[in-house]
Automatic annotation (TrEMBL):
UniProt domain Enoyl reductase (ER): residue ranges: 20-341
Protein name: Zinc-type alcohol dehydrogenase-like protein
Superkingdom to which the source organism belongs: Bacteria
UniProt KW keywords: Metal-binding, NADP, Oxidoreductase, Zinc
Lineage, top ranks: Bacteria, Bacillati, Bacillota, Bacilli, Bacillales
Protein family according to the UniProt entry: Belongs to the zinc-containing alcohol dehydrogenase family. Quinone oxidoreductase subfamily.
Keyword Metal-binding included in the entry's annotation: yes
Length: 346
């Protein structure tokens, strides 16, 4: 008979309002063992995202076993499965994980090596944990969905409108679009968020509470060839279609509550495309390893000082009380940048 090794975790059994003491609870679970291409990672820091809040949101359901969520982490490879080729124990890594598997709010987590990158050497654990999910989303949206060239010379005179430029994904998208040589127009609703967007790569900031076209014309710019929607596709649809350049592309990461009228894009021969960063891991696509490659690319850009972490706040130690506070802050809708919880060993 073998003795199982336990680990600490923050989990849920009921889907309750975050103010409820039992919305997230401290638990002890069996430590998993890696098989195949899985890494067993000792978690050092976890970043919060809107998806955490969405998954945990109140609903009439109970879990028989504690459910661990969380989709952003940095840590150390503890052990590897028999088919692993990209990493070895002791490697420092960062990743966003898979929505189909147990999450990162635990001392140890299993994750497929094909969606893991090496941690940037010049960042601490929290700074690194703030990057993966938003970085993958921004990278895939700009390069894979919008089809933007990585060569700045190819993008001379072209622009991108990023709706919600001060959020986690927006902060990364402005940096990547700037590196690609695009003129970046971000939207923001407050002075603090406008300043943040400008700091992270936006050339101009407009408000998303007014029509885009007059504001863009006032800046002396042509209609944007690319639009990236990170806030309420429903609310901004008409405004985006009107602002888009002929033969332009709109990409959104925000699901709609109502059907959108795609025929509005017909006269402009416009394109609409979704970005969901869990697609590759959820369906184990043939190009799943692209997320490993892009995270390694970002690590190099961070080490060269061309891309920066968007960490703005930390909570420690890692326990249910601090995780509930982190969820509360995300739910407030006023976060700028990223919030990280760290310190399982404290």
């Amino acid at each position: 008979m073998t003795n199982t090794v336990s680990m600490k975790a923050v989990a849920l059994k009921e889907y309750l309002p975050i103010e409820h003491q039992d919305s997230l609870i401290d638990v002890e679970l069996d430590r998993p063992s890696p098989q195949g291409r899985d890494l067993l990672v000792r978690i050092k820091a976890v970043s919060l995202n809107p998806v955490d809040v969405k998954i945990r949101a109140p609903k009439a359901r109970k879990e028989e076993q504690p459910r661990v969520i969380g989709w952003d982490a940095a840590g150390i490879v503890e052990a590897v499965g028999e088919d692993v080729t990209l990493f070895r124990p002791g490697d420092e890594v960062y990743y966003a994980g898979s929505i189909k598997r147990s999450g990162s709010n635990a001392q140890f987590q299993l994750v497929d090596e094909r969606i893991v990158g090496r941690k940037p050497k010049n960042l601490d654990w929290a700074e690194a944990a703030a990057l993966p999910l938003t970085t993958i989303t921004a990278w895939e949206a700009i390069y894979d969905r919008l089809g933007v060239s990585k060569n700045p010379d190819h993008n001379a005179g072209k622009s991108i409108l990023i709706i919600g430029a001060a959020g986690g994904v927006g902060s990364m998208a402005t940096q990547l679009a700037n590196l690609a040589g695009l003129t970046v127009v971000g939207t923001a609703s407050r002075k603090e968020s406008a300043d943040w967007a400008l700091k992270h790569g936006a050339h101009h900031v407009i408000t998303h509470y007014e029509d885009f076209v007059p504001q863009i014309k006032k800046l002396g710019l042509n209609a944007p060839e690319y639009i990236l929607c990170l806030n309420s596709t429903d609310k901004h649809w008409d405004n985006m279609v009107e602002a888009l350049a002929p033969q332009g592309i709109i990409c959104s990461i925000v699901e709609t509550e109502h059907p959108i009228e795609l025929t509005m894009l017909k006269d402009k021969s416009g394109t609409f495309v979704w970005e969901f960063m869990f697609t590759r891991s959820m369906f184990e696509t043939k190009d799943m390893i692209a997320q490993h490659e892009l995270l390694d690319n970002i690590a190099e850009l961070v080490e060269k000082g061309q891309v920066y972490t968007t960490l703005t706040d930390r909570l420690s130690p890692f326990n249910a009380a601090n995780m509930r506070e982190a969820h509360r802050r995300i739910e407030s809708g006023s976060m700028i940048g990223k919030l990280v919880v760290e310190g399982f060993d404290e």
